[in-house]
Amino acid sequence: MRLEVKYTEELSNIKLLEILKERVKIFVVEQKCIYQEIDDKDRNAQHVILYDENNIIAYTRIVTSENGISFGRVLVTQNYRKKGYGREIVQCTIDIIKKQYHHKFLKISGQAHLKTFYESFGFQANSKTYMEDGIPHIEFMMYI
Question: Which CDD domains did the record assign (predicted)?
């Protein structure tokens, strides 16, 4: 296994297509959410990718804005689920953010059924459950 962290412009066209294909497969097709999966946040994002040889195991996207730092699009590909890779990619992502940014709030929007999972990393729920693309979500925050 290997971990890659790259900004969008550093990714080859093929790697970017592989990432986008997995995101659409999971977030649009599997979760049946019809929305614009590829967005302007991808332009300046950092992509955190865990590979098994050349296969994507898990992925997250780190984005920054005037509102702070966030990550999302957390995924584990189907063949690698229930093996701890979700925890591994989230912890790696938090560690990367902690190294790059200090004394900031990290804010994420997570699916509500993963509340305990995100709290296990030190996130605190910062909102009531709300609907995003037809799926219940909660806003979480952590001071880094």
Answer: NAT_SF
In the numeric block, which tokens belong to residue 20? 């986008």
Query: Taking the complete model, does pTM exceed 0.90, yes or no?
Result: yes
d(CA 15, CA 10) in angstroms, rounded, equals 10
For residue 144 the two structure tokens come to: 């880094």
Model confidence over 79-125: pLDDT tens digits?
999 999 999 999 999 999 999 988 788 999 999 999 999 999 999 99
CA–CA dist 41, 8 (Å, integer): 10
Sign of CA dihedral 47, 50, 52, 58: negative
Quote the CA–CA distance of 144 and 114 in Å, as a whole number: 21
Overall domain count for the chain: 1
CA 3 to chain centre: 14
Q: Kindly state whether residue 44 falls inside one of the protein's structural domains.
A: yes
Q: Which of 52, 65, 51 is nearest to 11 (CA)?
A: 51
Helices (H), 7-84: 13-23
Residue span of the structural domain in which 17 resides: 2-102
User: Would 130 be classed as within a structural domain?
Assistant: no
Is residue 84, in this structure, part of any structural domain at all? Answer: yes
Cβ neighbours of 131 (radius 10 Å): 9
